[in-house]
Design goal:
Layout lengths: L2 E2 L2 E2 L1 H8 L5 E7 L3 H15 L5 H7 L1 E8 L4 H5 L2 H6 L4 E6 L8 H19 L2 E4 L10 H10 L4 E3 L7 H9 L13 H10 L3 H5 L13 E6 L3 E6 L4 E4 L21 E2 L1
Parallel strand pairs: 3-4, 3-6, 4-5, 7-11
Antiparallel strand pairs: 1-2, 6-10, 7-10, 8-9
Length: 262
């Protein structure tokens, strides 16, 4: 430790705790009119909220790799929100090559594996980012705080919303002259419940259509909200140099609460 007046420098202690996670690469695969619209008009604007990427970029070195088709490259690379994001971090718009886009889920996982291998070689953490997510303001500041706490793996899940009604509600919140979208967690949850995806409704514990393999289970709590039990989810952020994954994109060996958080 560096010492100041005989006392350990706590800032240096934080740096040492997360030594291998001072560089983070986010990776997204996106193509097609609807998903690019979601990326540029909702996803990235919500990431530009003050306590999201601007806050995380002050806590760690962030790079964002966005993979897309050749015909979509200029629309993404030249977007105003991409230029604004570049004020805070490195953004690389890269071309998809030799990827079968007829199976979108497989294509996403293939590109994510590219990112995982690259991060492993360069000693960075990897964040697997879908293009059609809205982030509440404070989400990425929390990620940075978890890294400072020494967590090397972060798991999370997403609440699914019905696209047309949710898109209309979210876009109505964006101010015409603002590049960012500032929405609190409470507001976002309220909008999500108001545009609940049928699959989420099926996850209610007493649903007549409860699936055989649910991602999560919901219990409504009167006047409060929802109690949620998450049963299955892949990792969101992790250090691939120290953690191996299996074919389900989950840890191949047990990890401790000191290493991982949800």
């Amino acid at each position: 430790y560096a010492c100041r007046n005989g006392s350990p420098d706590r800032n240096l202690e934080v740096i040492l705790t997360g030594l291998n996670l001072q560089r983070v690469t986010m990776i997204t695969t996106v193509w097609g009119e609807w998903h690019i619209k979601m990326l540029l008009e909702i996803n990235i604007p919500s990431m530009l909220a003050s306590q999201n990427l601007p806050a995380l970029a002050q806590q760690t070195n962030v790079t964002y790799d966005i993979y897309t088709r050749d015909e979509d490259y200029n629309k993404i690379n030249g977007a105003d929100v991409i230029q604004e994001m570049r004020r805070h971090l490195t953004v690389n718009v890269l071309l998809l090559t030799n990827v079968d886009l007829s199976n979108p889920i497989a294509a996403h996982h293939e590109v994510w594996m590219w990112g995982i291998e690259k991060a492993k070689k360069t000693g960075q953490a990897i964040m697997l980012m879908p293009p059609d997510v809205v982030w509440s303001n404070g989400s990425f500041r929390t990620i940075g705080n978890r890294l400072k706490d020494g967590h090397r793996t972060i798991m999370m899940t997403y609440m699914r919303a019905e696209e047309s009604s949710f898109e209309e509600s979210i876009l109505a919140l964006r101010k015409p002259d603002n590049l960012d979208l500032d929405i609190s967690g409470e507001e976002l949850l309220s909008l999500s419940i108001g545009s609940l995806h049928p699959l989420m409704a099926a996850y209610l514990h007493d649903s007549d259509h409860f699936p055989v393999h649910p991602e999560m289970v919901f219990w409504p709590v009167e006047n409060e909200g929802l109690l949620v039990r998450v049963l299955a989810r892949e990792m969101f952020l992790f250090d691939p140099a120290t953690l191996e994954t299996n074919q389900m994109a989950l840890p191949s060996k047990p990890i401790t609460p000191k290493e991982a958080c949800f």
